[in-house]
Model the fold of this input.
Amino acid sequence: MSAAGWALDVACRLVAIGVFVGAVEQWSVREQFQPGGVLFTPAHRMSRVRALVSGRHTLAVLVLAQLTTALVVLASGVETVLGWAALCVLTIAFVALRWFRRSGGDGAEQMASIVLISTVLVAPAFPGDARLALGVGFIAAQSVLAYSTSGIAKLVSPVWRDGTGLAGILSTIDHGTPALGQWLVRHPTLSKLASWGTIAFECAFVLVLVLPPPLAAGMLLAGLAFHAACAALMGLNSFLWAFPATYPCVWVAAGFVRGLASG
Amino acid sequence: MTLPDGALLGALTIVFTLWLLASIPNQFRWEWWDNTARRDVLALLPRWTFFAPRPGRHDLHILIRDWSAGSPGQWRELERRPPAPWLRAFWNPDRFVRKTVTDTGNALIRAAARPEAGSSTSIQLHAAYLEILGWVVAAPPPVQDTSPGDARQFVLVRTQTARPGRRLDVAFISFEHPRL
Done:
């Protein structure tokens, strides 16, 4: 197995776990997809194509397709023809459910789509190292773009720089842990420190491509801890799978970059 | 089995390059780009700004009340089921509903704040208003009420923190809508 093949395989298995959880979560709120539910799309707001494929059992079919194919991908990886075929169906079902649902999506779904679609396109089940390297490079580039954009957007924000933004977010029920948020409101210096820690980590993430391997590994471990904290304190459980899923690709891409730099 | 790698590699290079290049302007709120990005029906172009530069520091709640014979009933919150805090790291099905409620509610608040909205009743025709009204009308009456009421009304309320004595900011009050 090539390094690029390994990276795509691990990435897709991690994304498959997240997709599996997301599919079960959506099934558990299936009443919200019914008329009057928050996730229901009335016929008059549907495009002609969506109206054609939307029926009583659309949600069940798409959820079932995601669950079964996610299990196949987890079990066999994506470097076998069976695993790659399952990945194709998983990707179609995942993108279709996002399109069918129309709202309620998040950045984790976007990253999962990027990993799934690009791996389907480079087809790791068939020989072609250059093709796989292209997929790995694309996923790594999107990952670096994601952290850099998020870091810079926080850096230019006065409420992130003074720490009140973080304390405010964590004070909410939807995206926080209100007791911790209020504690940070009472301790503004710590809130500012945590804010700047987040900004520094996200802005510096791009350095993972050029740092020596031990430091790059430390940076990725810090990223994993960051997403674990976001899942526990902010309820961003889907990010815990989708973003670390890109790390194997970032790791392999960093190897390419170091190889280029050393000639 | 071998795929024709030369042509495929070239095509993939073009696809990934275009996808990455199109992702960059999508990080900004440029009107000229937003008009183009609106055609991305499969939401393939990511936006990675996450809680920045203006993070949401409030929870948005939809409260509804029924009117009977000209008298208003008690306000009550449209159902929300946040999972147990210890479970949220792995299981958070409420996130899809909350995100939709927050995005739609904020869209309505922004639309109502526009100068052209004024005191006009045309806000009732706004897509976000109609969407929320659909949820509100479909909500069952309170368990203790035998009569469903003649009309229903909703408000959008912002809160910060979960404390019992928290401040409630009313961000939008709807018209009363007769029940059919």
Notes: Chain A has one domain: 3-261.
